[in-house]
Design brief:
There is one protein chain. This protein has 13 helices and eleven strands. The strands form three sheets. Strands 3-2-1-4-5-6 form a six-stranded parallel beta sheet. Strands 7-8-9 form a three-stranded antiparallel beta sheet, with helices on one face. It has about 375 residues and is α/β, with parallel strands linked by helices. Helix 2 links the parallel strand 2 and strand 3. About 35% of the residues lie in helices and about 15% in strands. The N terminus and C terminus are likely disordered.
């Protein structure tokens, strides 16, 4: 599509790294974490994403903790984007938005917002919301906790004799932002065949339902629901000397016994078969816990995984930041721009031969007098 001062992407320089969505222009009118996360993913893959903000800034600038200035949430959601400020109450700004819309490939907007005016036939109109319009939950006021509860996740998380555990953060929104991103990329790909744009809808409710694994299929199959009762299988949560670990011993039972110095269990007739071990699983876990208490979590996990036993360490975010895996994969980086430097989640996945990472910090809120000026990419 043709460009404008606000939508002109980075110059096509010789030797410039190639990205999968080079040349795609996105207007991000969304105000939710889900919508703006979808925009971040598009920016990571080379799209020129312009965040359109009202006077005073988009609401995510003020959501959650900050260290002076914009919130950490806003910075994460909007790295790699540019920003312009438009006041929809102003006739001139509405006309400006209409003009920009006619030059965009993709628009991200909130459910219930006005349909794009001035959009071309090739526009991918992505509408991001909490629940399907006109459905049973239309009009509800949602939160992260409500989304997790409706999805069934809270019913299965936590000890059976305690309250359910609520996963903090913006997990539901990130899931929906990923859904929106996939929908947009699919629509762009389809546009190459049909030559037409389309509207795509992405809701948190549907995204979490699709991620429910066997929760939905179990109910569909036999009418029962998952609970927080003890898992009826070979699952053990063990406290090592420095951290908790989770092991799932559905196979390779001898490996676990060797790693935790419990070879004597292999000769115990009570635990000869899988059925025997399942019937006596609680007493087996007690022995495993006794041996694990003096061992380092990384050592036990490494030994189990080497023997093809599912084992994971329950780790903190600080431990992840300092882990060898994150260092080798370069999960975190720092991005610099005219307004300063920020820590960034560098990339979530890779595409062979293409750059898939953010390259600039989140945009500062433009001054009203400069709100139509092009922000640095």
């Amino acid at each position: 599509m043709s460009s404008s001062p606000d939508l002109a992407g980075p110059p096509d320089l010789p030797g410039r790294p190639v990205s999968a969505l080079d040349g795609v222009v996105v207007l991000d009118l969304s105000t939710s974490a889900a919508g703006q996360y979808a925009g971040r993913l598009l920016a990571m893959n080379g799209a020129d994403v312009v965040l359109v903000e009202p006077p005073g800034g988009t609401p995510t600038r003020y959501r959650g903790p900050s260290a002076g200035g914009d919130s950490f949430l806003f910075r994460h959601l909007n790295q790699g984007k540019r920003s312009i400020v438009l006041d929809v109450a102003s006739p001139s700004d509405r006309e400006r938005l209409r003009e920009l819309m006619g030059r965009a490939d993709v628009v991200l907007r909130d459910q219930g917002s006005m349909a794009p005016e001035g959009a071309g036939e090739l526009l991918i109109d992505c509408v991001v919301g909490d629940a399907p319009e006109g459905g049973a939950y239309n009009g509800w006021r949602f939160s992260e906790m409500i989304h997790q509860a409706l999805a069934g996740a809270m019913k299965t998380t936590g000890a059976f004799d305690r309250e359910p555990i609520y996963g903090l953060g913006e997990r539901a929104s990130y899931a929906n932002g990923t859904t929106a991103y996939i929908s947009v990329v699919s629509a762009l790909y389809e546009r190459r065949r049909s030559g037409s744009g389309q509207r795509v809808d992405a809701t948190v409710f549907e995204s979490l339902a699709a991620m429910g694994q066997n929760i939905v299929s179990q109910y569909s199959y036999n009418g029962t629901g998952a609970t927080r009762q003890r898992y009826p299988g070979f699952l053990a949560l063990l406290r090592c000397a420095d951290a908790w670990i989770v092991i799932f011993v559905i196979r390779n039972w001898p490996t676990v016994c060797r790693v935790l110095d419990c070879e004597h269990l292999l000769d115990d007739e009570r635990y000869r078969t899988s059925g025997d071990r399942l019937r006596h699983w609680e007493e087996i876990v007690a022995v495993l816990q006794e041996r694990a208490a003096t061992r380092r979590a990384d050592e036990v996990v490494e030994g189990c995984q080497r023997g093809r036993v599912s084992a994971e360490k329950v780790t903190s975010l600080r431990d992840l930041l300092e882990s060898e895996q994150w260092r080798v994969r370069r999960v975190m980086s720092r991005v610099s721009g005219p307004d300063g430097e920020e820590a960034a989640v560098r990339s979530l996945f890779t595409i062979g031969g293409a750059v898939c990472e953010v390259r600039s910090p989140s945009p500062r809120l433009p001054e009203p007098s400069a709100r139509h000026e092009r922000r640095p990419a």
